[in-house]
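Schema walkthrough. Field components (list of strings):
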Amino acid sequence: MADWVLHVDMDQFIAAVEVLRRPELAGLPVIVGGRGDPTERAVVSTASYEARAFGIGSGMPLKIAARKAPDDAVFLPVDHEAYAVASGEVMAALRALPEVVLEVIGWDECFLGVTTDDPEGVARAAQEAVLAATDLHCSVGIGDNKVRAKIATEFGKPRGVFRLTEENWFAVMGDRPTRDLWGVGSKVQKRLGKHGIATVRELAAADEQMLIAEFGPRMGVWYHELGSGHGPRVVDDTPWVARSHSRETTFQQNLTTSAQVQSAVRELAVQAFDDCAAEGRPIMRVHLKVRYAPFETRTLGRKLAGPTEDREEFIEEALTLAGALDPDREVRLLGVRAEMSMPDDADGLERTPVRGRI
DNA sequence: TCTGGGGTCCTAGGACCC
DNA sequence: TCTGGGGTCCTAGGACCC
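Field assembly_structure (string):
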């Protein structure tokens, strides 16, 4: 018996949930994003496979999606609550599988830790359990660690299973661009490129000291290991403890006066504060995120004088930060983030550079 | 061509202390 | 008068993920 990591990822999750409650949409290009109005500033959350055939994908501006979409395409607003309910049903079905440890890493994905000689059999059982409970399909990646399991899933989509381990890592991934690795985005891909590293194989063979000099002691080593497909193996079912909460909003018309900015900051600060207050932990820091027109993002941070549970005090701190914004530039996005103290028993939580846990 | 909203973690550099 | 290493904490910002 060996230890395996399975990565379960729902297929076109949000679009699938929408089709489930409106069966008449089955087979149509379905695009979910923003308030469902493709003339507004917003991006695509998920597109159904039928929509993807027209080149529409996650993160694409709705306006662009509308241009590519055929006449029978359906645009829908994001409905967080419906997806949270469906997500809960999916996770419950998987948690009920025998002898698995489940670690949630997003609305529509999780890791399963299992000890078995038949990981494919467990993967199929997971797919059947989810389908029986929710009518939703998923893909499963099998790996000897989290990195390989996560990457394997992409090769299994849709509705499939794929195994990626030490044995086939370089055969499958060696010649692919570094961007295909979990945790390597466009910026890191470019910086690696400056050192002549374009592929996964080249990253694995790179000089670690050079990577440390370029990315720092932690990320340098992490990227090097990533090239060989190494990563954490432990699946941890400890319930997640949020470190911060934020509220942000994109304005359909840019804000042009500081009075407008102040009032928007106040509104968002109240919401972010209340999200944290609901967890009963005091707030330690406040951050402001601003996007100036046309598209330049800045963040400002500030540690509070002491932990606070006083809403007005938090708002004042947020407004103080807002005073440092450039009054001559139009603002198209504002966000306020409240960073909470950690509960005592959550201190020392393991951190890995594989991020994005929600 | 126009780019959301919710998060996590890492790094550089300065302040300060011994 | 000009000057060491080592450590920690904090601020500000960057990168990535779903």
